[in-house]
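Lay summary. Proteins are chains of building blocks that fold into shapes, and those shapes determine what they do. In this project we predict the shape from the chain. Here is one chain we studied, written as its sequence of building blocks.
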Amino acid sequence: MGFTESVSGCAYTATLGTTDGYVAPAGRVTVSDHAGAVGVQTYDASGASANLPFHVIVAC
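And here is the predicted shape, written in a compact code that computers can read:
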């Protein structure tokens, strides 16, 4: 996820979730500093990489 400024010095977190009333499937999400942006990767319940919906919060 890109922002107008680097978020390398910020705190960030993500969670699986939707905004349309559906329950997000079981799984997990990781975040990382990706050259000043937030890198987000989601995985299904078995640990395989998956395209799952998520929410991310950045606090600077």
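What the prediction tells us: The beta strands are 11-16, 27-34, 37-44, 54-59.
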